[in-house]
Design brief:
Elements (H helix, E strand, L loop, with lengths): L2 E3 L5 E3 L14 E5 L2 E6 L9 E4 L8 E3 L5 E2 L3 E5 L7 H11 L22 E3 L3 H40 L9 E4 L4 E6 L12 E4 L15 E3 L1 H7 L9 E5 L7 E4 L6 E2 L3 E6 L6 H9 L1 H10 L10 H5 L2 E4 L2 H39 L6
Parallel strand pairs: 3-7, 12-16
Antiparallel strand pairs: 1-9, 2-8, 3-4, 5-6, 5-8, 10-18, 11-17, 12-13, 14-15, 14-17
Helix pairs in contact: 2-7
Length: about 375
């Protein structure tokens, strides 16, 4: 397959950034680093254009602008795309390739036009590009459909909580107690550096704790001896609750596994007293929007927020009857089972999509 420099098929350019004070609620869409950020009375691109986020934490993210849009300087516009190149094909290739070797800067990551000079693009015939893009479009459609299904079940679980318990901070039918009074333990993970291994005891950090589930896709491992030494007081047990306490604070998930894992200092461990409160209820309570807002306000620090467990211990906790909590747990379990099936479908779709990407840019997609 023939490879050509990216600069030979387009003209990467950063346009003038519109001040946020000049953005409007209607007009032509304005694209910033991560998509549409507002509207303006002028446009600088009449046709759909491939954009690369070129500043900040999401550096390297791709977007395709709508026709008649304004693209500002936080995104690199790939202008004047050659007629020999299919835009969707190029977008799939660049997403597959990534920009790790192009991004510069540490405190403020950035992509420059000069950095993009090292990018080479495979260029089969235009007809072949369109064929490949069509196959990937279909695989991507299936992938996004399964992702949307998972999101639907997440919304359904939250809706169930609100339907049954209402606003947790103003529920007059519930008794309010201090959070710590219905817990057996509130602590956090090891604080010393722990060696990483290719196998052993999984190490969960804040990045692995999502709202309502644990992400096991990017895991480091600890050896048994270090695990026993450093995790003596914070070994999660089944039905414990894990809460992110550093960075993106407040994300909460039930640990529903019967296996050894360890957590680092960015994760708080909460062990509900089963005679007083149920884990499923506590998790949904903490993930509810009113409590999430309260947790964000409790965060200390400047750029990197920290949630103090002493503050968490005093959080007001609405405690409905155990029977009512049990009814909620049963109904939520049904949603969780359906969500697990959707995750399995999503994993298959994701694996297929990645396999097709690999074949597409090796010239093996038949």
């Amino acid at each position: 397959m023939r490879y050509v420099p990216l600069h030979s098929i387009c003209r990467p350019k950063q346009w003038k950034t519109i001040a946020s004070s000049k953005l409007r609620d209607e007009g032509y869409p304005v694209y910033g680093a991560n998509g549409i950020i507002g509207y303006h009375d002028e446009f600088n691109h009449a046709h759909p254009t491939l954009l690369i986020t070129c500043r900040g934490a999401t550096c390297g993210k791709l977007n395709v602008s709508k026709p008649f849009s304004y693209i500002n300087g936080n995104a690199m516009a790939l202008d004047d795309l050659s007629g020999e190149v299919d835009l969707n094909f190029l977008a799939y290739f660049l997403a597959h390739r990534g920009f790790d070797d192009v991004i510069s800067g540490s405190a403020q990551p950035q992509i420059t036009g000069q950095g993009l000079q090292k990018v080479l693009v495979p260029l089969p015939s235009l007809e072949e590009q369109k064929r490949i893009a069509g196959i990937l479009d279909e695989a991507d459609r299936v992938r996004k459909k399964t992702q949307a299904l998972i999101a639907k079940y997440d919304e359904l679980a939250q809706s169930l909580f609100l339907d049954m318990f209402g606003d947790p901070l103003s529920n007059s039918s519930s008794e309010f107690v201090d959070f710590e009074s219905v817990m057996s333990r509130i602590t956090y993970g090891y604080t010393r550096p722990m060696s990483h291994h290719d196998s052993g005891i999984p190490i969960l950090t804040a990045k692995n704790i999502r709202s309502g589930y644990i992400d096991w896709t990017k895991i480091h491992f600890a050896c048994r001896s270090e695990f026993d030494e450093l995790s003596a007081k914070s070994k999660p047990q089944k039905d414990d609750i894990l809460v992110t306490k550093d960075g993106s604070i407040g994300r909460t998930a039930v640990f529903d596994e019967n296996r050894a894992v360890c957590i680092n200092q960015s994760v708080a461990l909460i062990r509900p007293n089963p005679e007083l409160i149920k884990s499923t209820y506590v998790e949904s309570y903490l993930n509810s929007q009113p409590i999430q807002l309260k947790l964000q306000r409790m965060g200390k620090g400047g750029g990197l927020k920290h949630l103090q467990i002493t503050e968490l211990a005093k959080l007001p906790m609405a405690r409905p009857s155990l029977e009512y909590q049990g009814d909620f747990a049963v109904k939520k379990a049904e949603i969780i089972e359906e969500r697990k099936k959707a995750i399995q479908q999503s994993t298959v779709a994701e694996t297929l999509f990645k396999a097709l990407l690999q074949k597409a840019f090796k010239g093996e997609l038949t």
